[in-house]
Every structure is written in structure tokens, then in C-alpha cells.
Specification:
Layout lengths: L2 H14 L3 H14 L4 H13 L3 H17 L3 H14 L4 H14 L2 H17 L3 H14 L4 H13 L3 H17 L3 H14 L6 H11 L3 H14 L4 H14 L2 H14 L4 H13 L3 H17 L3 H14 L4 H13 L3 H19 L6 H8 L16 H5 L1 H17 L1 H18 L21 H11 L19 H13 L3 H11 L3 H17 L3 H11 L7 H17 L3 H14 L6 H13 L8 H4 L6
């Protein structure tokens, strides 16, 4: 026997005599020989905690936790720090450490619970810096949680960080828009008005950002509701046009622009948008008519440059249209571009000259005619290819003159159409709806079996004590395996309440349900709730889902539960049933032998081994 083994053996004998302090000394000496023995260190930590030498116990537990964490055994580290939490329930640093470990292992809901506990503590202590750190950690873990975002924004405002607070509120508002939660968005807008009364266009600034991020369909829906309440808000109309442009729905855009023009006749923005829309549809006649009508609106509002750009775009579409060239001339002149204005004026005169002069067939006359400044950048020889077109220009000019007359005669008609479309806008604008991609239909849930209802009634009423935070609340089913492993770690550490809560979460997946319910029954038994444990485990016997392994595990735990209550006959029956199913299951053979020995013993003067632990002859 090595020295370490002898010290451990001595410690166990001292414990049987009730000499805990001397046993602790032996364990400390053994640990000095082999500092890497974590099981030995855990036993020492438990003894120190039992002896109420809490600081020493904490030191040993922390050494174990750091070792486990460093080697990637996060669940075991979590179980160790939960032991420390039991010893020091008010120490917030333990909560932060648990949050970090849960985060590393991907147990997000657990980490959020621990960070929330830390936040509550720091907020109570008026520690603004640490409380914000806790909230930022929570936001990092759950970016789509509106409650966390709201709290973060409110705390920033309370601490006087106004600009940061406003940005945080905007982030929350964008999330609500994304979720299509119009009611919550409205309440948030009201709250912003209370906190930031000078910020009158908060909701519109959020919608603008949403459009920029590509959420134009959602923005259109919200803006329509907004305009219903306040139809004369210019910014809302501008954003609606912007959203319709982003959606590339030209028919809807035309309806919106026409209504916008009717409500705000002096605004150039909807006129620009509508002209560009008509140009995109190659409707040059309507575009030119609207542009000619809108010239003064652009010039008076200081948007001559936009007017010029629109005319040039139209000229690209219709390069030989005299009215377009004249419009380009007027726009350039209004914008202060004298040279460009002169060039367009010259081009317009050239078109007029071509329209009124006879064409000769000799080359000299043609060259003299073509030397006119139609385009300064085009050389004489480049124009030879245009001769066939020029020969027919009389006919072309006549046709265009007729078109111009027709366009002029349709000016009043166009204005009437604008009014008619605008009138129809009231009827059809608000009917524009956005189809939601989300399917909110509720999947029909099959009625649970009677046995499962019974089991749920039992387990749902289990009262656990796991500190101020319910451990594992809200865990996603995808974390079931992690929860199961965490429950086993808690169970091994004797943290039965924490283990029960972890197994509850792991039981969400059908493949783990029976095993988790059995383990919850084992936890109840080991924490001393014998009758509740037996009731729960017996209810599971009626389960139609029991596999061979589940049946063995269930009857094995029932046998242990019966034995713990002194019912050795029933325990032996369950052990025998397990042996019939699988004779190699755990240590069922040894348990049967022990059970038989118990039956053969008298009970009048016998003491159990546990009762003899602290018994010593004087």
C-alpha cells in the first residue's frame, strides 16, 4: 500500500470514529502527494464544507472548477461552481462564473439566468458599470430578445447616456418591425416621445433605416398605417415613395406619387420619382408632359439640377425630340450651365432648320447641311451613314409636329388623369397588403396518454430549491443532450434539485423522456422524498414506451427506493425481475445476494452501518 493509499485509509477510519478534522488532515497530506487527483480534492472539499470551514472548501472547489474548465469539461465545472454557490449564495462573482461556463457550453438560457441575477445585484448596488456589462452580455447571447433590448435602452437613459440610449431604442424598434409587432412598435414610439420629446420623427427614422436594410415591404405596411393617422406628414410620404422604389413595383409607385403630388403640389420629390418611373416604362409622352408642367416647381424649390438630369434622361430616350431639347436648354439655363444651354439651343435650332429646309441630292449641299452643329463631337465623315435618315426627315418632322400638337392637347387630359388616379388612391391605396412569410398556424397536439398525464402531474409538482433563479428555464430542445449531461453531473455532485431541473429540460425530446423521468425519481429518493419517488416511478411502469433498457433501469431504481424505505421483500422482487430481463444489468446479482442476506437477519438488536458510524465505546 502506498503512502497516499494509507493516508486515505486512515482518513476513512477517522471518519467512522467521527474525527472529521483529523480525517481532513489526512486527505490534505494525501493530496499534497498527488495534487492532480480531482476526486480526492472533491472529497476533501466536501469534508471541509461539512466541517463549516467554508473558505477552505471554496478554495478546493475552485481548484477543481478551474481544472475542469481548462480541460473543456464545462458541465462538470458548472456542477462544481453550483456547490460553491450553495456555500456562498450571495456572492455574485459565482453567478458570473456560472454564466460564463454556461455560455461556453452553449446553454444560453442558463447563462441568461445567471447574468440576470448578476444584473439585479449590480442594479441594487447602483453599480452602473457592472450592470451594463451584464446587460451587454445578455444582448450578446440573445440578440433577438426585445425585453433585454428595452431594459438596456432604459438603463442607458437612466445613466444619462442619451445618444446611446436612443440608438438602443432604435435597435429595438427595428426588431419589432422585423417581427411585424405593430402594437409594440406603437407603444415604443409613445415611450420615445416621453423620453425624447424633441425627437418628433423617431418612428420614421427607424422606418427609413429599415428600408435601407431591405425591409421595404414591412416599411410600406407600417407607413400606410402611419399615413392613415396623419396623412399630411411629408416625411412619411417621402419614405413611402422610397420604399415603393426599393420594391420596384412601378404601378404602386405611380399611385403613391400621384396622391403625393395632390397633397403636396409644391414638392419636387414625388414629381421626380414619377417622371423616372415613366421613363423606366418608356412612356416618354407622359414623362415629358409631367416634366413640362413641373418645371417651375423644380426651379422655385432650388432643384434645377434635378430638372436638368430628368430632361437629359428623357433626351437619351428621345434624342431628336425638339421639345425635349428645348426643355434641356431651359433646365441648363435655370441651373446656370450656360455653355450646355447654348449647345442644346443649337441642337434644337438644327432640328428646326432640318424640318423647314428642302434637301438637294448633290453632295455639296448635303455636306453644307450636315455641317450644322447637330453634335459637336461627330465628324463630317461619321454623318454619311445618316443620309438615308435625313432624306426622310421632312416626313419625320411632320409626324413629330403632329405628335407635339397632340401632346399639347393632352396636357389638360393628363392633369385630369392625375386627379382621377389620386381620387382612386383613397379607395385602393390602403388595400395594399404584404403577405406574411411566417406561418402562425398551430400544430395539433396529440392527446397525451393517461400514464404520461399521471407522471407529469407528479413531476410538475416537485418543489426544488436552486437559489433565486430557476435553473434551465426556457432551454431550447436542441440543448437536450447538454441538459442531460449536466443533470448527470449535478446528480454525481449531490445537487439533486439542480439535477431535477436539468432532467426536466432534457425530457423535452421523446428519446430522452423516459430516462430523464427515471433519473428524476432517483433524485427524489436520494434527497429523501421516498414516497414521492416511489409514486412517480411506479406510474412509469404503465408507460407504453418502455424499452428493455428502460424497464431494467426503472425496476432497478424502484428496488433501491423500496430498500431505502425498509421494504426489502418488494425490493428483492424488483431485483429479480431485472435479473430475468438482463442478468448483467449493473450490479443486480450482488444486490439480490444482499437482499437475501437482509431477509435472513434479525432486526431486534441490529444496527445499520450508518447508525454505527458515529458510535464509539468509551
Amino acid at each position: 500500500m502506498s503512502k497516499k493509499e494509507k493516508l486515505i485509509d486512515d482518513a476513512q477510519k477517522l471518519l467512522q470514529k467521527g474525527q472529521t478534522d483529523k480525517a481532513i488532515t489526512c486527505y490534505q497530506e494525501a493530496l499534497a502527494i498527488d495534487p492532480g487527483d480531482m476526486r480526492l480534492r472533491q472529497r476533501l472539499a466536501e469534508l471541509l464544507a461539512k466541517a463549516r470551514r467554508l473558505d477552505e472548501a471554496r478554495g478546493e472547489f475552485e481548484a477543481i472548477g478551474k481544472n475542469m474548465s481548462a480541460n473543456g469539461f464545462y458541465m462538470k465545472a458548472i456542477a462544481v461552481y453550483k456547490q460553491i454557490e450553495k456555500l456562498f449564495p450571495e456572492d455574485v462573482s459565482v453567478a458570473i462564473k456560472l454564466a460564463e461556463l454556461n455560455e461556453k457550453h452553449g446553454l444560453i438560457a442558463n447563462a441568461l439566468s445567471e447574468y440576470k441575477r448578476a444584473f439585479d445585484y449590480f442594479e441594487q448596488q447602483k453599480n452602473n458599470f457592472e450592470s451594463l456589462k451584464a446587460l451587454e452580455a445578455m444582448q450578446r447571447l440573445d440578440k433577438k430578445n426585445p425585453n433585454i433590448k428595452l431594459k438596456y435602452a432604459e438603463v442607458l437613459f437612466q445613466q444619462g447616456k442619451i445618444e446611446q440610449s436612443l440608438e438602443a431604442f432604435k435597435s429595438l424598434a427595428l426588431l419589432l418591425l422585423e417581427r411585424r409587432d405593430d402594437t409594440a412598435f406603437g407603444r415604443l414610439s409613445d415611450r420615445i416621445q416621453q423620453l425624447f420629446p424633441e425627437n418628433t420623427d423617431f418612428s420614421l427614422s427607424v422606418i427609413e433605416r429599415k428600408i435601407q436594410e431591405g425591409g421595404y415591404e414591412q416599411a410600406i405596411t407600417v407607413l400606410q398605417e402611419h399615413i392613415k393617422l396623419n396623412p399630411h406628414q411629408l416625411k412619411a410620404w417621402q419614405l413611402l415613395v422610397m420604399a415603393c422604389q426599393a420594391a420596384e413595383n412601378l404601378s404602386r409607385l405611380k399611385v403613391v406619387c400621384n396622391h403625393f403630388i395632390r397633397l403636396f403640389p409644391e414638392e419636387p420629390y414625388p414629381r421626380e420619382a414619377l417622371v423616372r418611373c415613366l421613363i423606366a416604362e418608356h412612356d416618354q409622352k407622359a414623362a415629358l408632359t409631367l416634366l413640362e408642367e413641373s418645371e417651375q416647381v423644380f426651379i422655385v424649390s432650388g432643384a434645377a439640377a434635378i430638372l436638368k438630369a430628368l430632361y437629359i434622361s428623357l433626351n437619351d430616350l428621345s434624342p431628336l425630340n425638339d421639345k425635349v431639347l428645348k426643355g434641356c436648354y431651359r433646365a441648363c439655363e435655370a441651373n446656370g450651365n450656360e455653355e450646355e444651354a447654348a449647345a442644346y439651343f443649337s441642337k434644337s435650332n438644327s432640328i428646326s432648320t432640318l424640318a423647314s429646309s428642302p434637301f438637294s441630292q448633290d453632295t455639296e449641299a448635303e455636306e453644307e447641311l450636315l455641317s450644322t452643329e447637330i453634335n459637336a463631337d461627330i465628324e463630317i465623315e461619321d454623318l454619311q451613314g445618316l443620309l438615308p435618315e435625313i432624306e426622310d426627315i421632312d416626313e419625320t418632322v411632320n409626324i413629330r409636329s403632329e405628335e407635339q400638337l397632340e401632346m399639347e392637347s393632352t396636357t389638360d387630359v393628363t392633369q385630369k388623369n392625375v386627379t382621377d388616379i389620386a381620387d382612386s388612391f383613397d379607395n385602393d391605396f390602403y388595400e395594399i397588403e404584404v403577405e406574411l412569410d411566417d406561418d402562425f398556424s398551430i400544430t395539433e397536439i396529440a392527446k397525451p396518454n393517461t400514464w404520461f398525464e399521471t407522471v407529469n402531474d407528479i413531476f410538475d409538482n416537485i418543489q426544488t430549491e436552486t437559489g433565486k433563479v430557476r435553473f434551465g428555464e426556457g432551454i431550447d430542445n436542441g440543448d437536450a443532450q447538454s441538459q442531460y449531461d449536466l443533470g448527470l453531473a449535478f446528480y454525481e455532485m449531490g445537487l439533486y434539485d439542480e439535477a431535477i431541473n436539468a432532467f426536466r429540460q432534457a425530457a423535452e425530446l421523446p428519446g430522452r423522456r423516459i430516462a430523464c423521468l427515471i433519473l428524476q425519481g432517483a433524485c427524489l429518493r436520494d434527497k429523501g422524498d421516498f414516497q414521492l419517488a416511489e409514486n412517480a416511478l411506479r406510474a412509469l411502469l404503465a408507460s407504453p414506451e418502455l424499452s428493455l433498457e428502460d424497464s431494467c433501469a426503472l425496476k432497478y431504481e424502484l428496488a433501491l427506493t423500496c430498500a431505502a424505505q425498509g421494504n426489502h421483500n418488494q425490493a428483492r422482487i424488483f431485483f429479480e425481475e431485472v435479473e430475468l430481463l438482463d442478468s448483467a444489468f449493473r450490479d443486480v446479482g450482488r444486490r439480490l445476494r444482499l437482499s437475501s442476506e437482509e431477509e435472513g437477519k434479525g432486526t431486534d438488536l441490529d444496527f445499520s452501518e450508518e447508525e454505527l458510524l458515529n458510535f464509539e465505546l468509551k
